[in-house]
């Protein structure tokens, strides 16, 4: 590390502490030449994930796009910003865990829809209507009916005692 005061590259670490829930390290350093103390932060840089769009074009993965879509779907719903943050983090983490370099845009949308389904059913239908490009009211009705069928199946199945989102 180069000293910000004198430019010397020799220093010693005085203190190291985990930060960001263990995802980063904060280090206090001291320059061996001039004695100046400074702080550095280290964290893992994730591989740049690319999203493969329907037209086969590629763009950088941007969690803020997921957030924007979820916020639009949750507009005027009783969904806390912390819950939206949690959903964005969950979807992002699962994509980064399952895909190394490229992820299909359909997978981003499907995982976001599934997470929203657990949080708020109305927000889920709003998001699905845009994502799946519903053309008429019949498609809304079909989606809502399928949600009702899934709920009936889940009610009949024995509970496993786990918590969902």
Q: What layout of secondary structure does this protein have?
A:
Elements: E1 11-19, E2 24-31, E3 37-43, E4 50-52, E5 58-60, H1 63-73, H2 81-98, E6 102-104, H3 105-119, H4 121-131, H5 137-156
Parallel strand pairs: 4-6
Antiparallel strand pairs: 1-2, 2-3, 4-5
Strand order across the largest sheet? 1-2-3
The radius of gyration over CA amounts to 23 Å
Helix-strand sequence: EEEEEHHEHHH
- Total of domains: 2
Distance between the termini: 42 Å
Enumerate how many helices there are, as a single number.
5
In the predicted model, the low-confidence regions spanning at least 5 consecutive residues are 160-165
**Share of residues in helices:** 40-55%
Shape, principal axes of CA atoms? elongated
Structural class: alpha+beta
Q: How much beta, percentage-wise?
A: 15-25%
How is this structure best described in words?
The chain has 165 residues and is of the alpha+beta class. It folds into 2 domains: 11-43; 50-152. 45% of the residues lie in helices and 20% in strands. The chain contains 5 helices and 6 strands, in the order E-E-E-E-E-H-H-E-H-H-H. The chain has helices spanning 63-73, 81-98, 105-119, 121-131, 137-156, and strands at 11-19, 24-31, 37-43, 50-52, 58-60, 102-104. The strands form 2 sheets. It has a 3-stranded antiparallel β-sheet with strand order 1-2-3, with no helix packed on it. A 3-stranded mixed β-sheet has the order 5-4-6. Helix 1 (63-73) packs across helix 2 (81-98). Residues 160-165 have low confidence and may be disordered.
């Amino acid at each position: 590390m180069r000293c910000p005061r004198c430019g010397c590259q020799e220093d010693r670490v005085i203190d190291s502490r985990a930060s960001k829930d263990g995802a980063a390290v904060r280090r206090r350093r001291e320059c061996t030449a001039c004695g100046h103390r400074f702080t550095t932060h280290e964290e893992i840089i994730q591989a740049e994930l690319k999203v493969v769009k329907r037209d086969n074009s590629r763009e950088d993965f941007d969690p803020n796009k997921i957030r924007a879509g979820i916020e639009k779907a949750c507009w005027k719903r009783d969904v806390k910003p912390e819950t939206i943050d949690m959903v964005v983090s969950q979807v992002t983490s699962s994509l980064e865990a399952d895909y190394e370099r490229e992820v299909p845009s359909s997978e981003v949308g499907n995982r976001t829809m599934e997470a929203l389904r657990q949080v708020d059913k109305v927000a889920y239908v709003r998001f699905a209507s845009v994502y799946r490009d519903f053309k008429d009211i019949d498609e809304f009705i079909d989606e809502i009916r399928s949600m009702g069928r899934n709920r009936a199946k889940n009610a009949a199945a024995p509970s496993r005692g786990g918590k969902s989102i």
